[in-house]
Amino acid sequence: MITIVDYGMGNLRNVLRACTEIGVKVSVTSDPALVRSALWLILPGVGAFGEAVRRIDDLGLRRPILEHAKAGRPLLGICLGMQLLFESSEESPGAAGLGLIAGRVMKLGRGVKVPHIGWNDVIPVSPTPLFPDPKEAPVTYFVHSFYAGIIPETVAVTEYGVRFSASVRKGNVYGVQFHPEKSQIAGLNLLRRFTLVKPAAWTT
Amino acid sequence: MLRKRIIPCLDLKDGKVVKGVKFIDLVSMGDPAAHALYYNNEGADELVILDITASHEARGTLVHVVEAVAENLFIPLTVGGGVRTTDDVRALLLAGADRVSLNTSAVSRPALISESAERFGTQCVVSAIDARRRDPSLPGWDVYVYGGRENTGKDAVEWAEEVEKRGAGEILLTSMDRDGTQIGYDCELLRAVTERVTIPIIASGGAGTMEHFAEAFADGGADAVLAASLFHTRSMTIRDLKSFLAKRGVPVR
């Protein structure tokens, strides 16, 4: 059973349908108690960083999400959901992210059109649960204006003006900047791999 | 490397796919969900649905069609037509759209673009511009609204700059002169706009041959190309088009 966190930003429906498509049971909730009891958690989201943080806090979801991650239960942030794993974003100065991964999300735009819209290569840096074979570089759908740079937690890289984190991982906390639910077979495969991740201890 | 996108477009009237020539003479081409499933499996990079009659008939949004189409779609979906308020945008996003295209209402009230961008993010907002070349004696293109029925007198390039400033994340640029003619995209129009904005541009109107698509990228500077009847009638498949473009050095998925 996968739990999708609904904090009122964007289309959960597509993430839900993608999970259903791969044969996984899904629930969608904004109830902190249900988030607290979740085993696999997906944090989706489109929109602005600051607004997302505000809604998460208003709904009392910050603590249950942090507890989930620190208990070593699998968490997947998608697009804005991945950016929320970080401490802050240039998009909304002053807004505190979840801080599960150190660093600040930056604005794209070195000689490229922004937003970064479309299908681009995701190059794994080493074998990890979501990218078991580094030779297999999926092409997935991106739509975003902000990015996380290359950090120790980077497990896959994409290039668009700069090289940035297409995917990050810290223990069982995962993030993907692209949209697996919109990336055809490549995306569905990745979601399936996430559902196979086993709960494990949080490592700092 | 970021791929150039090939985007089939479903023009809708009364919930059915139609195709007009120069925005008139609508011919019915069937059920949108069936088309969407076909394109999902055919290698389309995205799907666009436009209710081309919504504005002038003052009909509501396309929520039910979007729900049915989104059911089997695992590629991005952009929806437009008759969107007047940010609540309309939200309803379409909740129904399964990834992005919403604004046209007539944004021209009458440009704040709709900024409000939508603030509420849902720039990446959600596509600004559709229907442009028609002025009288041959005058340079430039006028912006038309209400499905091409009314000339606003706005300059298309200036309007493109304004929608970018207001927070549109992409422009869907249709040449009304070329729409349905299959004589090629208006690369001059495309270039005029791509040179002045830094957001991506979807070229629309006029595709008839594979060469036309290559021109829109190479000469027009487009980031994506859109076509409708050419794909719906299966007179060209997206697969064949992509292998043609790949041989021409265009990065495609």
Question: Overview of this structure, please?
Answer:
- The complex is a heterodimer of chains A (204) and B (253).
- In chain A, 25% of the residues lie in helices and 28% in strands.
- Chain A is of the alpha/beta class and 204 residues long.
- Chain A has a single domain (2-195), classed as Class I glutamine amidotransferase (GATase) domain (Rossmann fold), CATH 3.40.50.880.
- In chain A, strands 2-1-3-4-13-12-11-8 form an eight-stranded mixed sheet, sandwiched between helices. Chain A has a three-stranded mixed sheet with strand order 5-6-10, with no helix packed on it.
- Chain A is globular and about 45 Å long.
- In chain B, strands 1-4-5-6-7-10-11-12 form an eight-stranded parallel barrel, surrounded by six helices.
- In chain B, 35% of the residues lie in helices and 27% in strands.
- In chain B, helix 1 packs parallel to helix 3.
- Classes of the chains: A alpha/beta (204), B alpha/beta (253).
- Chains A and B meet through helix 1, strand 7, strand 9 and helix 6 of A and helix 4 and helix 6 of B.
